[in-house]
Specification:
nine-stranded parallel sheet
Length: 1092
């Protein structure tokens, strides 16, 4: 069998390349067993791969001779690649010139050589949707769509009498296609998928490149998923959507007012949706292209409890039992990676999880489901059944020289399934099917960006090869399939679960994804931090995913990394209980983060929050049915109510579940008892379940709406169709309201065959009587015999309770106006009393320094027009955030307790100075020339103090200045007044947003020029090799550099260390003892500069 050596690489050319007579004759189609020969000197071995729309072909050299013979297998080829190697023992690539020639041929033969202009268009999909391409040739050269449910739909024009309202322009240069679309002034942008930071994306720039982004911040430009999609809200309130239909790395630039700019590798189509009357109309139209969310099993809408990791089955049972004993609702317990035998997927640790079936049976008896993790990295180990079966079926991603790619992840050296091939997806699905027999209720796909350890890019090389199915684009390198890898893995897992149990709905959670992933999996917002900033961001992040076609998402409640405080955890649970996907999760090494882990007061808030969620599950489940059937979103921003109101477009502390408005506070010192709600125009009636608390969100129902609610069950399966049903009713100004309730088995697919009940309820005020009735039903289910409780809202949390029988007309007599006023007054008084008497969560977030200056666990912020810095004095005085505001770039890679900007007092890594508690000596000084300033000092023992002065000069706000020193304060006389041997080591950890496009550059003292790239590893520079007072971290993709200037006389050594997605630019002083008269000091500064 011919080996798949040296395939595709970066040499893939255009589809119609085979028609060029300089390579292959178009008059004689390639056939199996045809051969070719080439005269090459020096005993060079050659391998060539050709891909087509229907098959894949390969050349291979039969022997290393001067005239090697090639054998061609396959037919109808459209792309060709070649790699040349010197001999059997020297796999050095020498085909670069040939690659360049083929790249030139690609441009000439495949795509029209047009530099710029208006894009051409075709109407596709449905009325109001247009496909734009740079030219007819570009339209033909575009790869199949992996975002559309059917690529054929994108590629087939329809009859339409409409003309596009907005026509993009394009530019093409250096293999890149730039698409620009100018919209009316005052347009606001949203969407762009899984992104951190603010809700409104106007002024922001992101890059679609799925990345393992642990501890991301508001300025991180690439997270775990890619959605090259922008939702625009026009000044008149209409909405417009734009999709760059490319799987490759794509820049979405929204920095220019009212302008959308996409930049990615040529050629790709741009799809526009609308303008339509509302944003919901645009999202529904988008769902017709990319598909709707899978119908989740009802239990998956309950609360999920997770941790990395519950160490044994005994601990899992203990967690489950505690939920039931404390009366805290929960439906699911999750098993992280440690349940496996040595991190081998599809296995169980024989000591800690010896009998998973029995464990799951015990969980089921107590109303819990079990979800287990599966990663893509498969341990390379002969005798391990997954590795052996995958190798037999040849399913692994390969390197450019044809070998299975091996990268380190949790199990050690791993190979990775090539999910772009149908045979691989079938193989994985069969493994999943067998895995389900252990009692697995759901599967969690993690690390599927795919993440790879100990490499700068944090993923596999872009030159790796995928043998994709023809309908995906055929044989391509990893840069083409990287962003869809996670989605295709989730699809394979979903299909395996369906094979295992046709009568059950799969539940898959995926970390990585692409636009369209919602067809197969839910998602969460990755490895967030236990901070108030991340709590606030979690609302916007869930909404952005909803506005990008993924309605089933939510954050790790309480934060994944770091230790939550009781107040933070309670507030997060209150808000998180209202998210579409509701899961608590925390990292190994942190304190316990279960709802009862933070004291009785926090536990009670969590109990109230989750009981509230379970009451609302009938409403949430109905919203998901509508999302699945019609493509409507589940959670939406508040501005959807009145898109013409520009003041609502940046509202980030409230959102809606249908007509239900959730209004929350994300400020540590401001609960709902102190918050002043700013509501949209119209009628909004507040209510609760006698559960109001300062740390729970306020609930409002929009006038004209009815929502169904149930009982506060401990788990979803506890519900019975004959249980009491409650309708909460808010009349509009016309005295009318309407709402719907969807009911079925909660699992399976009988609902697709009519096995459900969809009830339309109406309420109408006629004279002084409110009549509540069923106006219409759908489905074959008979209405259960049950009582109906109607809560008619009056305002001020007051309501009228009335009981009847579901399905029968219920009449409610409205009391006179003065009685209504009295009810409202009494209700408001009761609300205030509940707020005042609620058990307050203790404020343990404040600590006192030795000098008596009170510090909060919220970082100290220094801010100017150009910079926003966050400093944590209580752990090493470190800078944990360094955001350049004009560009929005977060330069530091940090968590509270490690990394970021830190300093040491010795040459050893993490020597004293990086973890001690620092005192704040001065803050916000009014000294001449300073704008923002902070002076810290920390005792590092032996009579030594580390001082750090951070300031942003008023006369030059573009720079951040840091002056640091090691000072002798109380060095004993016996030592002659000199300290131990010390070295001031400045150790910043900078994030590489684009690792393959980043390098360090400087001119040394001796005049030599240095460009240091990640592959160079760690490098140090001393003497005349040191930078001559300046060096910079350059990001070519962003077009900017972070310049670090310093005093050469104070810096003895400069060190560059490349990590996984990070780089250290270290400054070292000389190493010597210090005295009061001879401290060690380094003064330096940072500035962001555009690349010239």
């Amino acid at each position: 069998m011919v080996a798949k050596a040296a395939i595709c690489s970066s040499l893939v050319t255009s589809r119609n390349l085979y028609s060029d007579s300089t390579l292959l004759s178009s008059s004689s189609p390639l056939k199996s067993s045809s051969s070719s020969s080439s005269s090459i000197n020096g005993g060079i071995s050659i391998s060539i791969s050709i891909s087509s729309g229907s098959s894949r072909s390969s050349f291979a050299v039969s022997q290393s001779v001067k005239r090697p013979t090639f054998f061609l297998i396959g037919s109808d080829c459209f792309s060709i690649s070649c790699s040349l190697f010197h001999g059997a023992g020297h796999r050095r690539r020498i085909g670069e010139k040939f690659a360049c020639k083929m790249a030139e041929l690609d441009v000439k033969s495949g795509v029209a050589d047009v530099a710029s202009g208006n894009m051409i268009f075709q109407p596709v999909l449905e009325e109001g949707v247009f496909r734009f391409d740079c030219s007819v040739d570009d339209r033909k050269a575009a790869f199949p769509s992996l975002s559309f449910v059917s690529s054929r739909v994108r590629d087939t024009p329809i009859m339409s009498h409409k003309y596009p309202s907005y026509i993009p322009i394009f530019e093409k240069a250096m293999g890149q296609q730039i698409v620009k679309l100018e919209l009316p002034s005052g347009t606001s942008f949203y969407g762009t998928g899984e992104v951190s930071g603010q809700l409104e994306r106007t002024g922001k720039r992101v890059f679609t490149w799925n990345s393992d982004a642990w501890g991301y911040g508001p300025g991180t430009t690439s997270l775990y998923q890619s959605h090259p999609w922008v939702l625009a809200i026009l000044p008149n309130g209409e909405a417009f959507g734009v999709l760059a239909d490319t799987t490759r790395r794509c820049e979405i630039d929204l920095r220019k007012e009212s302008t959308i700019k996409f930049t990615s590798a040529s050629s790709y189509p741009t799809i526009t949706f609308g303008p339509f009357a509302s944003a919901v109309d645009v999202l529904v139209s988008l769902s017709h292209a990319i598909g709707t969310v899978f119908m989740p099993p009802k239990w998956s809408l309950g609360y999920h409890q997770c941790r990395w990791s519950y160490a044994s089955d005994k601990r899992v049972i203990e967690i489950a039992r505690t939920f039931r004993e404390k009366g805290i609702p929960c439906d699911v317990i999750w098993m992280d990676i440690d349940y496996m035998d040595g991190f081998r997927c599809f296995t169980f640790d024989k000591e800690c999880f010896p009998d998973p079936k029995s464990l799951v049976q015990d969980l089921h008896l107590n109303g819990f489901k079990a979800i287990w993790m599966l990663d893509p990295g498969i341990k390379r180990e002969e005798g391990y059944f997954v590795y052996d079966s995958g190798s037999e079926r040849d399913v692994w991603i390969r390197t450019a020289d044809g070998r299975p790619f091996v990268g380190k992840v949790w199990p050690g050296p791993c190979v990775f399934p090539d999910f772009t091939q149908s045979k691989t997806r079938s193989w994985w699905a069969s493994l999943v099917k067998d895995f389900i027999s252990n009692g697995v209720d759901g599967i969690w796909n993690d690390m599927n960006e795919p993440a790879v350890f100990k490499v700068v890019t944090k993923t596999m090389p872009e030159t790796n090869i995928h043998f994709g199915d023809p309908e995906f684009g055929g044989c391509q390198n990893h840069s083409h399939y990287h962003n869809v890898y996670g989605m295709l893995m989730a699809r394979s897992t979903y299909e395996g679960m369906k094979l295992a149990a046709e009568s059950k709905r799969p539940f898959v959670l995926t970390r990585a994804g692409f636009i369209g992933s919602q067809r197969y999996a839910a998602t969460w917002t990755g490895d967030n931090l236990s901070t108030w900033e991340h709590l606030h961001m979690s609302i916007s992040m869930a909404l952005q995913l909803s506005l990008s076609g993924q309605p089933l998402s939510g954050p790790d409640i309480g934060g994944f990394a770091g230790n939550a405080t009781p107040k933070l955890f309670a507030r997060w649970m209150g808000i998180g209980a209202m998210f579409p996907f509701c899961r608590g999760h925390s990292e190994t090494g942190t304190i316990d983060h279960e709802p009862w882990s933070f004291g009785e007061e926090c536990e009670e808030v969590c109990r109230l929050a989750l009981r509230r969620r379970y009451r609302l599950i009938p409403h949430i489940y109905t919203l998901f049915y509508m999302a699945h059937m019609n493509g409507t979103p589940v959670a939406i921003p508040t501005f959807f109510i009145d898109p013409k109101d520009s003041s609502l477009r940046t509202t980030e502390n409230s959102f809606l579940l249908g007509p239900l408005l959730i209004y929350a506070s994300t400020k540590p010192d401001e609960g709902m008892d102190k918050s002043q709600e700013m509501l949209p125009k119209g009628i909004w009636l507040n209510f609760d379940f006698d559960d109001s608390h300062p740390d729970l969100p306020a609930l409002y129902l929009r006038g004209g709406s009815i929502i169904p609610v149930g009982l506060p069950y401990q788990h979803v399966d506890e519900a019975n169709p004959t249980d009491d049903l409650t309708l909460i009713v808010a009349l509009d100004k016309h005295g009318k309201a309407e709402g719907i309730l969807f009911e079925d088995d909660g699992d399976g697919y009988e609902f697709t065959k009519g096995g459900y009940l969809l009830t339309y309820y109406t309420a109408e005020l006629q004279s002084s009587i409110v009549i509540v009735k069923v106006s219409k039903t759908e489905g074959s289910w008979k209405r259960p015999k049950r009582r109906l409780n109607v809560k008619l809202l009056l305002g001020g949390a007051a309501m009228i309770n009335s009981w009847g029988t579901d399905g029968e007309e219920l009449q409610i007599t409205m009391p006179p106006e003065h009685e209504v006023s009295e009810l409202i007054s009494m209700s408001e008084k009761q609300y205030r009393m509940r707020m005042e008497t609620a058990k307050q969560i203790p404020k343990i977030e404040e600590v006192s320094t030795k000098k008596g200056i009170e510090l909060s666990t919220s970082p100290i912020e220094l801010k100017s027009s150009d910079w926003s810095l966050k400093v944590v004095p209580w752990i090493g005085g470190r800078i944990i955030s360094m955001v350049h505001l004009p560009t929005g770039i977060q330069w530091l890679h940090s968590r509270v307790e490690v990394n970021g900007y830190e300093e040491y007092s010795g040459t050893e890594y993490r020597s004293s100075g990086c973890s001690e508690e620092y005192d704040v000596i001065r803050r916000d000084l009014d000294q001449t020339g300073e704008d923002e300033s902070l002076l810290l000092e920390g005792d590092i023992g032996g009579g030594l103090i580390m001082e750090r002065h951070i300031c942003i000069p008023r006369d030059n706000s573009r720079v951040v200045q840091i002056g640091s020193s090691i000072v002798a304060r109380n060095v004993g006389a016996g030592s002659g007044g000199f300290s131990r041997l010390v070295c001031l080591r400045v150790h910043p950890v900078f994030a590489l947003l684009h690792p393959t496009e980043s390098f360090v550059s400087f001119v040394s003292i001796d005049g030599s020029k240095h460009d240091i790239w990640p592959e160079s590893g760690e490098q140090s520079y001393e003497g005349n090799n040191r930078p001559n007072g300046e060096w910079m971290l350059v990001d070519k993709c962003l077009g900017v550099s972070l310049v670090n200037r310093f005093n050469v006389q104070e810096v003895h050594k400069c060190l560059v260390h490349w990590g996984t997605g990070t780089v250290n630019l270290e400054l070292w002083s000389e190493q010597r003892p210090v005295s009061k008269e001879s401290p060690l000091a380094i003064a330096h500064e940072y500035e962001v500069r555009a690349i010239e």
